[in-house]
Each structure stands twice: as structure tokens, then as C-alpha cells.
Amino acid sequence: MIRAIVTSFALSFMLVATPGGARHDESEPKERTAETVLTSTSLARLSLAEKKLAFDEHVQEVYNRSGLKTAGLSFSVFERAYTGYHNFKQDGLTATDRQILTVVDFTKPSNLKRMWIIDLDANKVLYNNLVAHGRNTGNVRAEKFSNEPNSNMSSMGFYLTNKTYYGKHGLSLRLSGMDEQYNSKAMERAIVLHGADYVSDDFVKQYGRLGRSLGCPAVPRAISGDVIELIKDNTVLYIHSADKAYTSDYLNLERAVEGFAALQGTSPVSA
Asked: How far apart are CA 17 and CA 260, in angstroms?
């Protein structure tokens, strides 16, 4: 009985929580009833466990609707990235005109497409592409990471995209490292997102892997301009690694759940 009540709360919560609003099958009636609307009053009655259940189901729904399994992004990696995204959003750090989340999974080899740019409002993968890691991070696989200058290694963790500039790689995007221990020296190290000729299918066919950067997440030159324009100016980038010791304040699940619930509580609802 208790689980049925919790599930009822969670399902109704999801109807107003899904990015882009609730989606209905065209065969379903358009009328909304009291049972399908979560009011601010009912939201306030939810326990943390109930809010977490609603959040978990919401994350799964976004993952499914976005086709991320088919695109090759594991649910566990997406869940971590999405948790961080909501903590950034709660702090008012993310762009208000876009709901864009970029995920890089460096547990995958460089000859696979391991970068996903997701429109969370439309529930759509906008790009799924190759991305290079640092020269001293590894050969085919990314194995070593560093936050230190001149290490020529990639840095894991959460970033906020910053401003663009034109450098030796053409249009490039500065990245603000948000995890003190893991990537906070990104600006000092000039770790940026840029295009590179060594990031291409042709390079993979010839060498079995991508070329490597000096620590920057380099993407195919053919799409670099469009990618940079899309994700610039305060969108979230999460670089995942196999390092089990990695921790981040932005992975605080309870805070993300409470922030998510509060955000939905301020949304206008009607019976």
C-alpha cells in the first residue's frame, strides 16, 4: 500500500517534471484530472524517499526518450552527469535559454564515439561524436588524468563552458573546471574544446585510434564550429573516467533531488 502511494506521487510528479512538459500519446484524452496534477501542496507532503523515487523515474524517462542507450551512453554515466546538471542549475550557474548537457565517457576507447551533446528540453541527442584525450593520458584508452600544468593529460570531472576565442586551432571554447581537486586549473592550463584534424574516422582507420591533444577534449574539425556555438556560455560538460576515487560536490544526489523537487514546486500547475 505504501509503495502504491509513493508510486502514485512519483508518476504524477513526473508529469510536470519532464523537460519540455508532459507528453501524451495522441490517442490519450487531453483533459488533465486531479490525479494527474501534482500541486505545490502535495509536493510539500513528499518525503525525501518519495522525491528520490520521482527523480529516479524522471532520469530514466529522460534517458529513454532521448534514445541514449541506442546512442551508446550508459545509464549510470548519464545519471551522474544529470545529477550534476541539476546541482549546477540549482546554483543558477547554467544558461537560461538552453538545457544542454554534454557528456564525455573516457572509459570508452578513442576509436568509438564517446561524446554526447543532449538537448534536455527536446529529449534529443544533438551530437554523438569522436573526442580525443590527452597525449599522456593514454594510447587508445584514457588511463591517467591530471590537473597539473604541462602534464599533457586530460582532466576528469564537471566543467562549465565559458567564452569563445580564435587561437591556433581556430574557433575554440574555454572551459571552467569546477572540481577543485580534478580540473580547477583548466583555465591556467588552457584546456579548451577545439577542432583537430587528428579527430576523424579516417585517422581511426589508419591508426586504430585518434590522435591526442595536450589535454584538451578535441573534436572533429568538420563539426567543431557548430558544437562550440551550441554549448558555449554556461552549459554543463561532464568528463567521466574509470577512477573510482573521483568525487564531486556536484554528485550530491540528495541536494539534486531537493533542488529538482523545489524547481517543480515553483512551476505553474492547473487541475
From this structure: 8
- Is residue 242 helix, strand or coil? coil
Q: In what order do the strands lie in the sheet with 157-167?
A: 124-129, 115-119, 100-105, 236-240, 157-167, 170-177, 192-196, 218-220
Q: Is the dihedral of CA 182, 208, 229, 94 positive or negative?
A: negative
| Phi, then psi, of 67 in degrees rounded to 5 | 65, 35
Identity (one letter) of the amino acid at 8? S
> Would you say 113 and 119 are in contact if contact means Cβ atoms under 8 Å apart?
no
Q: Residues near 9 by Cβ (< 8 Å), separated by ≥ 6?
A: 38, 42, 46, 50, 53, 54
Q: Rounded CA gap, 72 and 100, in Å?
A: 18
State residue 162 phi and psi, 5-degree precision: -120, -140
H/E stretch holding 118 reads strand 115-119
Q: What would the grid cell of residue 244 be?
A: 573510482
* pLDDT tens, residue order, the chain (271 aa): 334 434 444 444 444 444 444 343 433 333 333 333 344 446 557 889 999 999 999 999 999 999 999 999 999 999 999 999 999 999 999 999 999 999 999 999 999 999 999 999 999 999 999 999 999 999 999 999 999 999 999 999 999 999 999 999 999 999 999 999 999 999 999 999 999 999 999 999 999 999 999 999 999 999 999 999 999 999 999 999 999 999 999 999 999 999 888 877 654 433 3
Give the distance from CA 172 to its chain's centroid. Answer: 20
Can you tell me the distance from the alpha carbon of 172 to that of 218, in angstroms, rounded to the nearest whole number? 10
Of the candidates 238, 224, 214, 213, the one whose C-alpha atom is nearest the C-alpha of residue 106 is 238
- Integer-rounded Cα Rg, in Å, for the chain is 20
